[in-house]
Design brief:
The chain is of the alpha+beta class. It contains one helix and six strands; from the N terminus they run H-E-E-E-E-E-E. The protein has a six-stranded antiparallel beta sheet with strand order 1-2-3-4-5-6, covered by helices on one side.
Length: 160
C-alpha cells in the first residue's frame, strides 16, 4: 500500500497529517472564480451604464426645472446652458465624473419661444450608451423624453 501525499510516512516515525491545499485544488478554485467573474462582469458593466444613465436623466430633469424657473423670471426659455448654470459656458458637465454634458438645443428643435429642448451628450465610458434629450412645450404641457442611441435610433425613457 502506497502512502498518500497527505499522510506521508517519515523516517523519524509514523505517518503525520500534512495541512494545506494541493496545486490542483488551488488551480480548480482559481478556475471557478474566473468563470464566475466572466459571467458577472458584463452584468456589472450594464448595471453601471443604467445607473449612470439615471444620473444623466436626473440632471436633465434638474436642468428642466431651472429652465422653468428661468422662464418664470424672464418670460422666455434660456438659449444656452450658461443662462441656467452660471459660469458653465455653453455646456454644463453633469455629475462627479462628467459623464454627460448638458446643452440647450437651438431653435431648430424649438421654433416657438414657448418650448425648451435640453440635450445630455454622453462622454467617456458612457458614450456607448447614447445621448439623452428632454423637450418641454409650455402651451401643450407635453414633455418628450428620448434616449438617442449611438446607431442613430432613439427610444423613450419614462418614469421621471
Amino acid at each position: 500500500m502506497w502512502p498518500s501525499a497527505r499522510h506521508a510516512a517519515t523516517a523519524a516515525g509514523p505517518a503525520r497529517h500534512e495541512l494545506g491545499v494541493t496545486l490542483i485544488e488551488l488551480m480548480i478554485a482559481v478556475a471557478v472564480v474566473g468563470i464566475l467573474a466572466m459571467i458577472a462582469y458584463p452584468s456589472y458593466v450594464e448595471y453601471r451604464l443604467r445607473a449612470d444613465r439615471a444620473l444623466g436623466q436626473k440632471c436633465l430633469i434638474d436642468a428642466l426645472g431651472r429652465a422653468e424657473s428661468y422662464y418664470t423670471r424672464i418670460g422666455r426659455y434660456p438659449e444656452s446652458a450658461n443662462e441656467i448654470f452660471p459660469s458653465a459656458g455653453n455646456a454644463y458637465s453633469c455629475g462627479n465624473e462628467g459623464l454627460y454634458r448638458l446643452s440647450i438645443e437651438s431653435e431648430a428643435d424649438c421654433p416657438s419661444r414657448n418650448c425648451v429642448s435640453i440635450r445630455a451628450d454622453s462622454m467617456g465610458k458612457q458614450v456607448k450608451d447614447g445621448n439623452l434629450q428632454i423637450r418641454y412645450e409650455f402651451g401643450s404641457k407635453s414633455t418628450t423624453k428620448k434616449r438617442l442611441l449611438p446607431d442613430g435610433g432613439s427610444t423613450s425613457w419614462v418614469g421621471h
